Q: What sequence folds into this?
């Protein structure tokens, strides 16, 4: 049976995969983590917040950090966490993908009909 190229196999070792998060998504995720550590809500509550609410609340947290020294400081995030390319082990099949017999027959038949039409047009043109 032919392999379906649209269905990708489930990886067996998830540690081989790195998440390819855009910078904006990573920034929003870090904002949520900082809001959780600053006790602005539980993890479940903040996870449900829309992006606008997270940004507004984070701005309030930044203002509060300037005024109140007891608020948790902003953590230093390493630059290595941001991955540019997704590293995924590639799966190469040993068997080449072969079209079904019906497709091969159909293409041969189409070529034959095209050649016949071309021959008829040439014979009419050169008369």
A:
């Amino acid at each position: 049976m032919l392999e379906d190229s649209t269905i990708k196999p489930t990886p067996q070792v998830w540690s081989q995969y790195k998440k390819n998060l855009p910078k904006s998504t990573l920034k929003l995720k870090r904002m949520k983590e900082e809001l959780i550590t600053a006790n602005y809500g539980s993890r479940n509550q903040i996870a449900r917040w829309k992006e606008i609410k997270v940004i507004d609340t984070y701005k309030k947290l930044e203002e509060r950090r300037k005024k109140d020294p007891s608020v948790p400081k902003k953590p230093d995030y390493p630059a290595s966490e941001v991955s540019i390319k997704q590293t995924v082990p590639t799966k190469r099949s040993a068997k080449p993908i072969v079209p079904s017999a019906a497709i091969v027959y159909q293409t041969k038949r189409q070529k034959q009909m095209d050649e016949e039409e071309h021959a008829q047009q040439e014979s009419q043109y050169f008369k």
In short: The chain has two domains: 21-83, 98-127. The mean pLDDT is 80. Residues 101-125 form the longest helix (25 residues).
